[in-house]
Amino acid sequence: MQKRQLGATGPVVSAIGLGCMGMSHSYGPADRAESIATIRAAMDAGVTLLDTGDFYGMGHNELLIREAIEGRRDEVQLSVKFGGMRDADGAFVGFDTRPNAAANFLAYSLERLGTDHVDIYRPARLDPSVPIEDTIGGIAEQIEKGRVRHIGLSEVGAETIRRAHAVHPIVDLQIEYSVLERGVEREILQTTRELGISITAYSVLGRGLISATPPVIGSDDWRGHTPRFQGDNLTQNLALIQKLNEIAENKGVTVAQLAIAWVAARGEDVVPLVGTTKRARLNEAIGAVDVTFTERELQEIEAVVPVGAVAGTRYAAAQMAALDSER
User: Fold this and answer.
1) Cα(217)–Cα(220) distance, rounded to whole angstroms?
2) Which of 50, 24, 25, 26 is nearest to 39 (CA)?
3) In the chain, what's the furthest Cα-to-Cα distance?
4) Helix extents (H) in the chain
5) pLDDT-based confidence at 26, cuts 50/70/90?
6) Mean pLDDT score across all residues of the chain
7) Using CA atoms, how far apart are residues 21 and 62, in angstroms rounded to an integer?
């Protein structure tokens, strides 16, 4: 497994990380045993970066990871998001990133994960009621206490990144980045590179859009409520994927491998997070590490999926309005 360093001061991690969210919520039911087996298979293959959130399944995801890494904690870096609050029905009811709240969330995460520290701790979103300086300062206090190793951010814009980094070094920004979604390239990527901050890219497969077969959206799958998976938008987007499929076939790789490798090729400071719940898909994703492109191939991909070609926003309107990264 190839390695990449997160930021100027962060840990060296595998060139592909495993996003564990789907093992606990959002995309319909997942098999627990297969999820645990997938995490262990990823570790066996040299994947060291495991990404989770304390609100994924309201703690379920952290407990799942604890079981999967038992006896192997020193083989992985745990990246944990906090701040998202949910009610008993699982609905989001806001964010809380006050320093005392961060300390509270962290304490529960450490207990669920069965560890004395997390490697990267990050607010899941910008809390509009809390200055980012206060949030980062609170996490820095946890670093002094040995409970956190590094600080990351998630879905924030250039100004917030600069303000956070001025308080304590930020090692990575977690944000959506794929051949379909390139908003990060407008301003954010330039800022992170100036400051020596890496990108950990999620939804590199467009939440399942980039696949050899159209995704099946169940009633409990939140993607059915997002614009890119609805009506004419979905029809237009699947047509784009068909063109990518043709390029992948000509190259002798799967379209998923093509998409993952495309993200990895954006720079040594970009680490794709692959969200999968099955070992077969994991093996396919890991194969993307060895995929490289000629300049002509990159131009061909750009021609069939130019910037802005995807139809519909990546989240529903209310969620888009709450994203600091979209301001």
Assistant:
1) 8
2) 50
3) 54
4) 32-44, 60-69, 99-113, 132-144, 158-167, 188-195, 231-251, 255-264, 279-286, 295-304, 317-321
5) low
6) 93
7) 10
In the DSSP assignment, the letter for residue 293 is -
Q: Is the pTM of this model over 0.90?
A: yes
Alpha-carbon distance of 291 to 85, in angstroms, equals: 39
The total of other beta-carbon atoms located within 10 Å of residue 33's CB is 7
> Any residues with CB less than 8 A from the CB of 106 and at least 6 apart, and which?
82, 118, 121, 142, 147, 148
Q: How far apart are CA 126 and CA 157, in angstroms?
A: 9
- Residue 127 CB: number of other CB atoms within 10 A? 19
d(CA 221, CA 92): 15
Q: Per the structure block, which two tokens stand in for 228?
A: 């890119």
Per residue, the 3-state secondary structure of 167-198, as one string, reads HCCEEEEEEECCCCCCHHHCCHHHHHHHHCCE
What is the mean predicted confidence (pLDDT) over 124-146?
Answer: 97
Q: What are the pLDDT digits (tens) for 155-170?
A: 999 999 999 999 999 9
Q: With 90 as the cut, is the pLDDT of residue 248 above it?
A: yes
What is the per-residue pLDDT across 193-224, written as a single tens digit (0 to 9) for each? 999 999 999 999 998 889 877 777 776 676 77
Sorted by where each starts, the structural domains of the chain and their CATH numbers stand as: 3-326 (3.20.20.100)
**Using an 8 Å Cβ cutoff, are 151 and 136 in contact?**
yes
Q: Are 17 and 275 in contact (CB under 8 A)?
A: no
* Active site residues per annotation: 56
Neighbours of 220 (CB within 10 A): 11
Residues with Cβ within 8 Å of 69's Cβ and at least 6 positions away in sequence, in order, are 39, 43, 50, 75, 76
